[in-house]
Amino acid sequence: MTDIKKNPKDTLSIFGYKPENKILWDNFISASKNGVFLFFRDYMEYHSHRFADHSLMFYSGDKLIALLPASVEGPTLYSHGGLTFGGVISTYEMKTPLMLQIFNSLTAYCHSRGITEIVYKPAPYIYHSIPADEDLYALFTYNAYLTARNVSSAIYLPNAKGFDGNRKDNLRKAKKNNLTVQKSDDFDAFMRIEEEVLVDRHGVKPVHSAEEIKLLADRFPDNIKLFASFKDNIMLAGVVMYESRNVAHMQYAANSKAGWNIGAQDIIEDYLIKEHYKDKRYFDFGISTENHGTLLNVGLINRKENFGASAVVYDTYKVTL
Predict the structure, then answer these.
(1) Do the Cβ atoms of 224 and 38 come closer than 8 Å?
(2) Mind giving me the DSSP string for 105-144?
(3) CA 163, 166, 172: angle at the middle one, nearest 5?
């Protein structure tokens, strides 16, 4: 912990989120420098039955200065158990000394409630509108240690590289087979392909069901979109995109057996990268690691990097109180 000089008139207060704060919470996320739609209450609460929400709101006097999407399980506070990343969400006015005060208050709050550790997943820098690593410094001052580092692959779209030979070959196959790409609302057809792929190759089921994906897409039509490739009106592959202010993120991707050898997924990604999301800052393919990042799926990450993507890490830290 780092000592900081503090004006005695500055007082920080922490309040647990309540449903009546929904509009205030969502408006703060929209105005933040590192918030995304995943932190809106309608997204966080679709799986509220799985996680005990313990989200926090930080005030300086009567001014809301930060939010922490969080859940609790036993003596552990997670930020948030149901989200890929989170951490302290702040406005463009956030300063490093203030973040240290927030962490001081947070740890005192946890002590008072018998919480003995914090599992913290900061938002990767590609989701920041401007630099927002004040929380990483605060974690350092509390001797936080890294418990997971998953590797994702992202393209910086203003300076996108060309595709390698394998990707170009698959695109030629897709065009030769007259595949077309379009936005689709047929999440049932996509999830059938997704389930087939995951069960056959990995023996697991998707994190979301078709019903959950449709529910979320209905709630966030501007952020959650399905793009698919078709031959003779039959869906061969699909990609579910999670779209935030700066990042177009591939949440799900599935290629049917019929589409595997004819570039059915490649042609979707080509369209998204070169056309649909060309004005975004980053195109994020998602992680290629397992077991907290200790196992790298080389074949998977090679495919993504063949599109010109490079590494971005999704970290998890633990603070023992």
Answers:
(1) no
(2) HHHHHHHHTT--EEEE-BPPGGG-SS---HHHHHHHHTT-
(3) 85
Yes or no: say if 254 and 164 are a contact pair by the CB < 8 Å rule: no
pLDDT digits (tens, 9 = 90+) for 10-65: 579 999 999 999 999 999 999 999 999 999 999 999 888 889 999 999 999 999 99
Distance CA 173, CA 119 (A): 46
H or E stretch at 312: strand 310-320
Question: From CA 82, how far away is CA 212, in angstroms rounded?
Answer: 14
Question: What is the DSSP-derived secondary structure letter of residue 276?
Answer: I
Q: What is the pLDDT of residues 107-156, one digit of tens each?
A: 999 999 999 999 999 999 999 999 999 999 999 999 999 999 999 999 99
Please give the Cα distance from 221 to 215 (Å, whole number): 10
Q: What single letter denotes the amino acid at residue 269?
A: E
What 8-state DSSP symbol labels residue 167? H
Amino acid found at 169: D
Q: How far is the C-alpha of 106 from the C-alpha of 118, rounded, in Å?
A: 10
Which of the 8 DSSP states describes residue 17?
Answer: -
Return the amino acid letter for 194: E
Cα–Cα distance for residue pair 315/321, rounded to 1 Å: 20
**Tokens read off for 120:** 């913290």
Q: What's the 3-state SS for 47-101?
A: HCCCCCECCEEEEECCEEEEEECCEEECCEEEECCCCCCECCEECCCCCHHHHHH
* Angle, CA 129 vertex, CA 124 and CA 131 arms, to 5°: 65
Q: What are the pLDDT digits (tens) for 87-103?
A: 999 999 999 999 999 99
Residue 302's alpha-carbon distances to 102, 152, 260, in angstroms, are 40, 11, 16
Query: Residue 14 has what pLDDT?
Result: 98
Q: pLDDT value at position 166?
A: 81
Residue in 11, 47, 55 with CA at minimum distance from that of residue 29: 55
**CB of 152 closer than 8 Å to CB of 111:** no
CB 251 within 8 A of CB 225: no
CA nearest to 251, candidates 295, 284, 215: 284
